[in-house]
Amino acid sequence: MSKVGFSFIILSVLMSFGLQAQKVNIEMGRNDIALNQLFTITLEVQNARLQSYSGFPEISGFQKRGTSSSSSTNFINGVRSSTQSITQNYLPTAEGTFKVAPFTIRVNGEDVRSEGTTVRVGPAIQQQSRRQDPFGDPFQDFFGQRNQAQPQEFVNIEADAFLALTTDKSAVYPGEGFTMTLAFYVSQNNRAEMRFHQLGEQLEKIIKKIKPANCWEENFNIESISGEPVTINGEQFNQFKIYQATYYPLNNDPIEIPKIGLELIKYQIAKNRTFFGQNKKEELVKFYSKPKTVTIKEMPEHPLKESVSVGNYKLEEKISDRSVHTGNSFNYEFSIVGEGNISGINELQLKSDENFDLFPPNTKQSINRNNGKVRGRKSFSFYGIPNEPGTFDMGDYFSWIYFNTRTEKYDTLKSDVTLVVTGESKKNESILSNDMGSFYDAMDIENNKLVSLDSRKNLRTVINVIIFAMIGLVVALMFKK
User: Fold this and answer.
1) Can you give the residue range of the structural domain that contains 193?
2) CB 307 within 8 A of CB 347
3) How many Cα atoms sit within 13 Å of 148 on the Cβ side?
4) Which of 40, 158, 382, 465 has its CA 20 to 30 A from that of 364?
5) What is the pLDDT of residues 18-75, one digit of tens each?
6) 289 and 386, same domain (yes or no)
7) What's the mean pLDDT in 163-174?
8) Which parts of the chain span the membrane according to its record (predicted)?
9) Considering its fold, how many domains does the chain have in total?
């Protein structure tokens, strides 16, 4: 076998230990919903990154209402597994029974098929007054109806719309998240007809301008744009979210977000219409956002000021047994749950002593990005063996310090579990079980007679004389040459 072939086999074997095969699922939401509830279709990819997909199907009797994404990563016994999902929301437009026909989504270059389902829509649980969305395809032709006549003159209709870049917080601590949203707002009284113009190309350039340099990013991955009714200062608008992400500053530098522009195509309408000919004329119009600054607040003094995580968290813990015998094992899980930079939470630091043998934990992580918030869970699963009997407060062994953004104070998540250990001490058994080596074995057979150190002075003198004589001989030979 060649060296190349052998190396390839070894590499394949090693990779099989660290990776698992890609798996793609399509999951349907609840089949019975109310008129004002959402039906969902979720695309889930396991052990691979969701790089591309062909889009979710249109469903008769439903309108698309945005997407949400989530991801999770687990490390179990050194093996990494991950899950990433995209959920498409659908809002029903009428009561009745609707069939979701079989469909196929192309995911990462492979076709994934769903057999569809049937959805029953009942009366609204809580009546909400919503005006019909005047938008069709947001990338094609929205904001009103097309005219059908040949104009001689064109009338310019002012657009009742604006572009806004907003953040949910104007000041944050280092490591505290703020959500940035870029959206286009159109009044429900708007009469101008518009559509997006080369949105993908524009958005790529816009993100480069507004993305902060020294921040960790959690992107909401908006894949489709659809209008959602909102109220601003008493006026009804349709909000079209274009980009949304949560950022976590890594230093104390203020976040400066510049003014950015977005081009749309707006139509001038024919003044005198005829059956044939041009009935409207395109023009490019540009909408601008206002610049925005997010200031960074100074953290209170603390020895761990530069390294603690920041957020709003709580502790959820589980233990396999609250009473164990010395030498028997137990499992303990310490889960940090809440809102913050879940990915930035470092591994729990263990306090080890002679009472327990505690082993490095397995780590699991899940992150959900929805409704402008990033929430999640990071779990540390420990395996331990008690060596000494007694009653132990596990808070002395498992705790985590962080900065609480709600109270604006440093806080500690600390275990509330009390573990009762019975049985005989295993400490001496541990000492006896260790081989101390041949040095200690020879102690019993060696002579214990005391030897004076002065008796060796003559020996040292002779050795020194020999060394100096050899040095002198070497020098003499060098000069002779």
Assistant:
1) 133-298
2) no
3) 2
4) 40
5) 445 678 889 999 999 998 889 999 988 888 877 778 888 999 889 888 777 777 655 5
6) no
7) 95
8) 461-479
9) 3
